[in-house]
TrEMBL record, chain B:
<dbReference type="InterPro" id="IPR001392">
    <property type="entry name" value="Clathrin_mu"/>
</dbReference>
<dbReference type="InterPro" id="IPR036168">
    <property type="entry name" value="AP2_Mu_C_sf"/>
</dbReference>
<keyword id="KW-0968">Cytoplasmic vesicle</keyword>
<protein>
    <recommendedName>
        <fullName>AP-3 complex subunit mu-1</fullName>
    </recommendedName>
</protein>
<dbReference type="InterPro" id="IPR028565">
    <property type="entry name" value="MHD"/>
</dbReference>
<feature type="domain" description="MHD">
    <location>
        <begin position="176"/>
        <end position="418"/>
    </location>
</feature>
<dbReference type="GO" id="GO:0005794">
    <property type="term" value="C:Golgi apparatus"/>
</dbReference>
<dbReference type="InterPro" id="IPR011012">
    <property type="entry name" value="Longin-like_dom_sf"/>
</dbReference>
<keyword id="KW-0333">Golgi apparatus</keyword>
<dbReference type="Pfam" id="PF00928">
    <property type="entry name" value="Adap_comp_sub"/>
</dbReference>
<dbReference type="GO" id="GO:0006886">
    <property type="term" value="P:intracellular protein transport"/>
</dbReference>
<keyword id="KW-0653">Protein transport</keyword>
<dbReference type="InterPro" id="IPR018240">
    <property type="entry name" value="Clathrin_mu_CS"/>
</dbReference>
<dbReference type="GO" id="GO:0030131">
    <property type="term" value="C:clathrin adaptor complex"/>
</dbReference>
<dbReference type="GO" id="GO:0016192">
    <property type="term" value="P:vesicle-mediated transport"/>
</dbReference>
<dbReference type="InterPro" id="IPR022775">
    <property type="entry name" value="AP_mu_sigma_su"/>
</dbReference>
<dbReference type="GO" id="GO:0030659">
    <property type="term" value="C:cytoplasmic vesicle membrane"/>
</dbReference>
Length: 1093, 419
């Protein structure tokens, strides 16, 4: 009803009309309660509220709630309505419910018992299938500050922390802080939840959980180690507010973990461009090698690199956060980049300017050069607020040097005349500081200041006097004229500080103004009683000094003044009088000190140092509240000093880097969906791969990886196809759902699928063949996940990783070999991989593996899959369609004689590409192609990976075919290297020798090679070989002999490779195979690979 | 982080309070009022005020103070930026962010504040998401709501909050698809007495008003991107593309937003569109002064200069003015005695606008030593003074052909002439 008439007062009348028309008006006050009724301070009006709340009409309740919210907003107490309001907590009307929440949160603390009535509603809502309702329930529940429900909250938070929805998890992170402030005893439990949420890979959660971390346990830096790289990589994609919190936290973290990049004794070696853009592991490998010179920790670099783009943020807080991070963490040479961004912020609102200028002021004290080019940006406008003007002045003063001082002084001259006298006074001080700092201009400044002494404004004159006094003190030269001039001014100046300054000057330099000084004292004696304390003290001072230097003329005057002062009201002055009298006036009682009176009074005084008020602010972290206030704010966390020795960087190593990819075809920012190292890569297609491999990586740590990150997409899948018995496998197999999601083609429980398939596979391979061919989509999903797993190993940029894989892989391959692979005769249809299996299944199989080692020669999974994609179709020639292919090195599911090929198609045009399929094939004899399914449409910017099979007939002939879209045809070809025509097999060393014995003479190709030094040891060499060709490792009894075995895909002919490492970088390479052509080609390729770096 | 928020009007009355954690008594604002009464001008109230138990961080936005109460260390800019975001949201919702509009829409304000902050930490600040949650009031809707009894609170759940592009709401539909860009450049300059430029630079922004169906992916390219010295972007802009190709590639939020702001390298010479001839003097005796200001075109690139307004903060000793203008009219309120506003409008190059006359001043007071500086506002349509030009706009991801338009405007920003 009149719910919204609040907004427009002309509708107040209308509302009444309607209300009466609709017959909903139960009390006469209802109608008039709308409109501006809210703001009337008429308390009688509120009597009907209770009645309205208890009516059964939502509109009335809503109306009442709106008025109540109005009361809350005005700060009026309406807690007596609590029972009536809380009843509506379960209302169906969303707006009403929200307003009830507002009320509840506001008054629950005061009405604890009644608030408990609402709890069950929230507990129920916490189980709601809708994530947003769950989240909002948790939000309100945790906001109810009633200690009794702490256990309930704790439970709810724990549950929400493992919710499938990242949004709910984000809410849980917020709830942690609320619970902590309600009951700090829960800290330990909450830390557990924080630890868990820190592992979360969603950008949505990251900011909130770090906030919780900062609030609950900022000292538990150990929780960050494992998440450090992830946080760095996620940073760009986190929402702005989260970015600020994370950057601040990482700044503190980095100060405890890395070596100072500022050390001058150590040579800083910036890694060259190439490695700079490579992944961390690579850098790490490097830094391990170069230990002598200071090399920045790659993680340290990662942080700097990933925060840099945020300097361009529109959010001033983010820019400031990055700026302070650079200031506190970056090598001195790199800090310069922040100045431009900080100067940009000066265009922003007044308050932003204030904070930014303060920080610039602190920076400019230490590093003048940084802001010198922007000098003019700090020029003051007459419309600036006073505190802005003063800060700008401060910065200009800090920036002043010999080169620019004349410009600055000219500018100051304008400011001195400003109507804003506070500012004018500050300018005079600034001039004074410039004069002391830059000796060249001291005289000019002094003259300028003296001119100001004739200024009409007292504040200006007074300030000038004070500054001149300070300046004269620093000057060794005589300035009798100026002092005389100032003595004359004493008649006019009334500002105590200025009068005191003049008197002090005259006293101090009384020998230079011999004639005037006694006269001044005479005048002062007259006015002594009416002077301010500070002036009186200086008069006493002057008297004492004159008495000592010129007692003839001033003796009586001094006596007079001392007598006056003796009876002064102020005890300080009486004290001083007594002291001075004892010291200077000789009498019988005078102590030993009076001899030294002259020395005491006329001792040369050190010149005051004119310092910037920002001098000591650098003890605080830039950009903090403490820095702004220049006092330690509560909760301020000290930035630690750099450690002498960096803590072990390996703490940050994570088994597998898990970039978070909430994959969205073409939608998200390109930069959002990828981990840092791909941030600098060029093409979108790469991102695609990255995402794929990323998702697979998480799966390759198979059993250990939980299902948390997959939560959101699992939700849809499990919802659509209740995966019953295989639910465990669906959880374990992240990869499918990821890759599935990536494709956005279908949503189904591929985990279910895989479970089924592997099961099928175990029992009967033919059935599984049927099933896969029967339901194309399913098999495709399966293939996809397979291929994804393969990409897992193709991390071209991280050698380190490859090595890791290499070490890791054999175990798995052993496992695979022993159980999964069917005898070579019956060609494998599906090659299940650990990724596809649930952890439990793997364990089962592992158990099996021990017992079933009898099969001698068997196809195994590849030891290593190179990631290098080959260009199939360039986007330029493909009218926006680009295609790349690579060999996943898996047995082909379509036909055992085929090599499986993965083709990634990307649409880089601005329109949808429709009907992608394979057209006319021009194949040499013996070659066959199994086509991928027609792709109906491909959205712009998105890409899809399909797999096809090609029977190359054990030759390296190229397969030519046409890639067709609805409108175009592109001729393309795929040419394999000889290494891809093989499938790895495994066998015992014994068998290997037996087989090798059979393949001698014609079938044996031998060569001796000179190794590239890098490849001289075992692992790199092995790595090179498996990179070149799809060979299986054969266990070898000797360290220097490495054996590999494979069979050709088409004919199944055995290919045996032996590498014997010799002294001084030489090695013998033997290839035994019946297919001599393949043998010699393989020999050549391996040789090239090993002799190259 | 943010404990509570108080909205205070320029007469120091609290007219709204909102608490996100436990309630902080409004007496905490006394410290603010103290600072407020000390400050000569509302602008001079320090943005950060420490109190024994709390810290007050405030912004001043169109005669309203937004005072946030903080208990612990926090980056002050974080709070300031957030408060500005709140004010901008109100402006966006109610057309203006004033005491009246806030009071009129109190419930919406409360609902907004509830969504924007959870436990003092920003939750949803993107206007697109908020509009999904809480619909802004329109006259039509409030009429409809009155009749049907429906509410402002969106029934739809804010899916945008969950998306990886939180700035755009889903399911946008328009019958006319339009994308407009306004390239607005402001000249910040300080001109000294003699007419020479002390300091000048160009600050530009590109504001976009995008009403496009679906999920369009836009690419905006410039003819001369090298001009841009320093840029900052709306989060939707893909920074990497900018770094490598100098194009703006983005999925736009729905509606109006600021796409980027930029700074044109101060190394380039900035064209100053007008010159000012001025002769302002105060005579020591006689308690009067002379005022004579003429404005003429300087470097206008052949365009007409419009909307010229000259604002002068006259010294307080000036009691009244007796001026005649050849163009436009001037206002000077002898009671408040602060600002002289001369609204010229369009400039006619043949007959230069001139304002001339005498100032009567308080007698017996020393004459002001500084002449007031002139603040000039102006506008030149269809010109970006830096020479920046949009090359083209491409759209991917959607099929329809949008209507595209680019408008250039040059304005005077902080354009000050010292006299």
């Amino acid at each position: 009803m009149s719910s919204n008439s609040l907004s427009y007062n002309d509708q107040g009348g209308m509302a009444v009309e309607h209300a009466s028309e609709a017959g909903q008006e139960t009390t006469p006050t209802t109608g008039s309660g709308s409109g501006f009724g809210l703001f009337r301070t008429d308390y009688k009006k509120d009597d009907d509220l209770k009645e309205m709340l208890e009516s059964n009409k939502d509109s009335l309740k809503l109306e009442a709630m709106k008025r109540i919210v109005g009361l809350i907003a005005k700060g009026k107490n309406s807690s007596d309505l609590f029972p009536a309001v809380v009843k509506n907590v379960a209302s169906k009307n969303i707006e009403l419910k929200k307003l009830v929440y507002v009320y509840l949160v506001r008054y629950a603390e005061e009405q604890q018992d009644l608030a408990l009535l609402s709890i069950s509603t929230f507990q129920r809502a916490l189980k709601d299938p809708n994530q947003l309702i769950r989240a909002s329930a948790l939000r309100v529940l945790s906001s109810i500050r009633v200690p009794i429900i702490v256990p309930i909250m704790m439970l709810a938070i724990k549950e929400a922390a493992s919710d499938l929805s990242p949004y709910v998890r984000k809410t849980a992170a917020h709830a942690i802080q609320k619970l902590y402030s309600l009951d700090p005893d829960q800290k330990e439990h909450l830390i557990e939840v924080i630890e868990k949420l820190l592992k979360d890979k969603s950008t949505l959660v990251a900011g909130s959980v770090v906030m919780a971390f900062e609030e609950v346990c900022p000292d538990r830096i150990d929780l960050i180690h494992k998440n450090y790289r992830k946080l760095c990589n996620l940073l760009v994609d986190v929402e702005e507010w989260g970015q600020v919190v994370i950057i601040n936290m990482l700044t503190r973290y980095a100060r405890t973990q890395f070596l100072s990049p500022w050390r001058e004794d150590k040579l800083f070696i910036e890694d060259n461009e190439k490695t700079f853009y490579e992944s961390d592991e690579d850098n790490k490998a490097k830094s391990a090698q170069i230990v002598k010179a200071y090399v920045m920790d790659p993680d340290h670099q990662l942080l700097l690199r990933n925060t840099k783009p945020l300097l361009q943020s529109r959010n001033t807080a983010v820019v400031m956060a990055v700026a302070q991070l650079y200031w506190h963490l970056a090598p001195k040479a790199d800090v310069g980049i922040i100045s431009k961004s900080l100067v940009r912020l000066l265009r922003s609102h007044r308050e932003v300017q204030y904070i930014v200028l303060q920080n610039i002021a602190t920076i400019s004290i230490q590093r003048k050069g940084m802001f010198e080019p922007y000098l003019k940006s700090f020029y003051v406008r007459s419309t600036d607020a006073t505190h802005i003007k003063i800060l700008k002045l401060e910065i200009l003063t800090n920036l002043a040097n010999e080169a620019n001082i004349s410009t600055i002084l000219r500018e100051f001259q304008t400011y001195v005349k400003s109507q804003d006298k506070v500012f004018a006074a500050a300018t005079i001080q600034a001039i004074g500081r410039c004069a002391t700092n830059i000796t060249e201009v001291t005289d000019t400044c002094l003259n300028g200041l003296v001119l100001l002494l004739s200024n009409g404004n007292e504040t200006v004159v007074a300030e000038s006097v004070v500054v001149i006094k300070n300046l004269l003190q620093t000057q060794s030269t005589q300035h009798g004229d100026i002092i005389k001039h100032m003595a004359k001014l004493l008649d006019n100046i009334t500002v105590p500080m200025a009068r005191a300054s003049i008197l002090w000057l005259i006293g101090e330099y009384c020998e230079r103004v011999l004639k005037i000084a006694p006269d001044v004292l005479r005048k002062m004696a007259k006015t002594f009683t009416s002077e301010e304390e500070i002036v009186k003290l200086q008069i006493l001072n002057l008297a004492a000094k004159l008495y000592l230097t010129n007692s003839k003329q001033t003796k009586l005057l001094t006596q007079y003044i001392l007598n006056l002062a003796k009876y002064d009201q102020n005890y300080d002055i009486r004290d001083r009088t007594r002291f001075i009298r004892q010291l200077i006036v000789p009498n019988e009682k005078s102590g030993a000190l009076s001899k030294y009176a002259k020395k005491i009074f006329l001792a040369p005084k050190p010149a005051p140092v004119l310092e910037s008020p920002f001098k000591d602010r650098d003890r605080f972290q830039l950009g903090t509240l403490s820095h702004t206030l220049n006092t330690k704010a509560s909760g301020y966390l000290e930035l630690s000093q750099w450690p002498e020795v960096a803590p072990d960087p390996s703490m940050r190593n994570v088994e597998v880097i898990e970039p978070v990819n909430q994959w969205k075809p073409q939608l998200g920012k390109v930069k959002t969906t990828k981990p840092a190292h791909s941030f600098y890569s060029d093409g979108d297609e790469e991102d695609e791969e990255e995402a794929a491999s990323g998702s697979e990586e998480s799966s390759s740590e198979d059993s250990s990886s939980g299902s948390e990150d997959e939560a959101e997409e699992d939700k849809s899948s499990s919802g659509s196809k209740g995966s019953d018995s295989t639910s465990s496998s669906s959880e374990g197999s992240d990869s499918e759902s990821e890759s599935n999601k990536k494709k956005k083609t279908k949503k189904k429980t591929t985990g279910n699928e895989s479970g089924k398939q592997s099961a099928l596979h175990k029992t009967d391979s033919s059935t599984s063949e049927e099933s896969s061919s029967g339901s194309q989509s399913e098999s495709e999903a399966q293939v996809d996940s397979d291929s994804g797993t393969d990409q897992n190993h193709q991390k071209p940029k991280s050698k380190m990783k490859e090595v890791k894989e290499l070490i890791k892989k054999p175990e798995i391959s052993l496992l695979d070999l022993d159980d999964f692979a069917p005898p070579p005769s019956s060609s494998p249809i599906v090659m299940p991989k650990p990724a596809v299996l649930s952890p439990t299944l793997i364990m089962d199989l592992e158990g099996l593996s021990l017992s079933s080692t009898s099969i001698a020669i068997d196809v195994t999974s590849p030891v290593y899959v190179p990631a290098k994609p080959h260009e199939l179709l360039h986007r330029m020639s493909g009218k926006g369609l680009s295609a790349q292919y690579h060999f996943p090195r898996q047995p082909c599911i379509y036909n055992s004689k085929m090599v499986s090929v993965q083709v990634t198609l990307s649409n880089e045009a601005d329109q949808k590409i429709e009907g992608i399929h394979i057209g006319g094939k021009k194949l040499p004899t013996g070659l066959q192609i199994y086509e991928f399914n027609r792709i109906e449409s491909l959205e712009p910017g998105s890409s899809i990976t399909v797999s096809m099979g090609i029977d190359f007939n054990d030759s390296t002939q190229s397969a030519n075919f046409q890639l067709c879209t609805k409108s175009d045809q592109f001729s393309v070809f795929i040419q394999p290297t000889v290494g891809e025509l093989l499938l790895p097999v495994t066998m015992s060393e014994q068998d290997f020798k037996v087989q090798q014995g059979k393949l001698t003479g014609m079938n044996e190709n031998t060569t001796s090679i000179t190794l590239e030094p890098k490849n001289s040891s075992g692992q790199p060499a092995v790595h090179k070989i498996v990179n070149v060709a799809n060979l299986g490792l054969v266990p070898s009894g000797l360290d220097n002999i490495h054996r590999f075995a494979a069979k050709t895909v088409n004919a199944g002919t055995l290919v045996l490779v032996t590498l014997e490492l010799k002294e001084s970088l030489t090695a013998d390479l033997i290839v035994n195979t019946e297919k001599t052509a393949i043998g010699s080609m393989l020999l050549r390729e391996i040789k090239t690979a090993l002799s190259q770096a | 982080m943010i404990h509570s928020l108080f909205l205070i009007n320029s007469t120091a009355d609290i007219f709204l309070e909102k608490h996100w954690k436990s309630v902080v008594s409004r007496s905490v604002c006394d410290y603010f009022f103290e600072a407020f009464s000390k400050a000569s001008d509302p602008e001079n109230v320090p943005p950060v005020i420490p109190t024994p138990h709390h810290y007050l961080i405030s912004i001043f936005w169109e005669k309203t103070f937004f005072v946030a109460v903080i208990q612990n260390e926090v980056s002050p800019l974080f709070v300031i930026e957030f408060l500005h975001r709140v004010a901008e949201t109100f402006q966006d919702y109610f057309g203006e962010c004033s005491e009246t509009s806030i009071k009129d829409n109190l419930v919406i304000v409360y609902e907004l504040l509830e969504e924007m902050l959870d436990n003092g930490f920003p939750l949803a600040t993107e206007s697109n998401i908020l509009k999904e949650l809480i619909r802004p009031p329109t006259i039509l809707r409030s009429v409809v709501n009155t009749i049907t009894g429906s509410s402002n609170v969106g029934n739809m759940l804010p899916s945008g909050q969950l998306s990886s592009i939180p700035w755009r709401r889903a399911g946008v539909k328009y019958s006319n698809n339009e994308a407009y860009f306004d390239v607005i450049e402001e000249i910040d300059a300080i001109i000294d007495k003699s007419g020479s430029t002390v300091f000048a630079e160009i600050q530009g922004v590109i504001d976009a008003c995008i009403k496009l169906t679906g999920m369009p992916d836009l690419t905006l390219s410039f003819m001369n991107p090298r001009l841009l010295d320093d840029v900052s972007f709306h989060p939707c802009v893909r920074f990497k593309r900018w770094e490598s190709e100098r194009v703006l590639s983005f999925i736009p939020p729905d509606g109006t937003f600021r796409l980027m702001s930029y700074h044109v390298s101060s190394q380039n010479l900035v064209a100053i569109p007008v010159y000012v001839k001025h002769n302002i003097s105060f005579r020591e005796s006689g308690a009067s002064g002379r005022f004579d200001v003429t404005i003429g075109p300087k470097q206008t690139m052949g365009k007409t200069v419009e909307g010229i307004v000259v604002t002068v903060h006259l010294p307080k000793v000036v009691l009244n003015t007796d001026l005649t203008s050849t163009h436009g009219n001037y206002t000077f309120d002898p009671v408040t005695k602060v600002i002289l506003v001369w609204d010229i409008g369009k400039m006619n190059p043949q007959k230069l606008p001139n304002l001339k006359g005498t100032l009567s001043m308080q007698s017996g007071v020393p004459k002001p030593e500084e002449n007031p500086s002139l603040n000039i506002q102006l506008r030149i349509q269809q010109l970006a003074i830096s020479g920046l030009k949009v090359n083209r706009l491409d759209m991917y991801g959607e099929k329809y052909k949008p209507f595209k338009g680019v408008k250039y405007v040059t304005k005077a920003g902080k354009f000050q002439v010292r006299t």
